[in-house]
Amino acid sequence: MSETVKAVKDLTVGELKNIIQKAIKETFEDELEDYIALRNKEYLQSIRDAREDYKAGNIKKFEELFPDV
Q1: Alpha carbon distance 68, 3 (integer Å)
Q2: What is the 3-state secondary structure of 3-67?
Q3: Cα–Cα distance between 27 and 31 in angstroms, integer?
Q4: What per-residue confidence (pLDDT) applies to 69?
Q5: Dist CA 8 CA 6 (whole Å)
Q6: pTM beyond cutoff 0.90
Q7: Quick one: pLDDT at residue 1?
Q8: In angstroms, rounded to a whole number, what is the distance separating the alpha carbons of residues 52 and 25?
Q9: Which of 6, 21, 55, 62 could form a disulfide linkage to 10, CB 3.0–4.6 angstroms apart?
């Protein structure tokens, strides 16, 4: 599907409305996903553990984990 790039002044009201609705929907979905994740105690603990590991220097470089990439 090819999308044509238009200036805002060239959009119809319906096209602009669809763009705004899509942006709001995507933002809402992202926020909802974050909210659900942050209510998960195991997820929050894994973040704390990862931060502690990082501060302690317990990290590996990407190249060490994926040498063939």
Answers
A1: 36
A2: CCCCCHHHCCHHHHHHHHHHHHHHHHHHHHHHHHHHCCHHHHHHHHHHHHHHHCCCCCCHHHHCC
A3: 6
A4: 81
A5: 6
A6: no
A7: 47
A8: 35
A9: 6
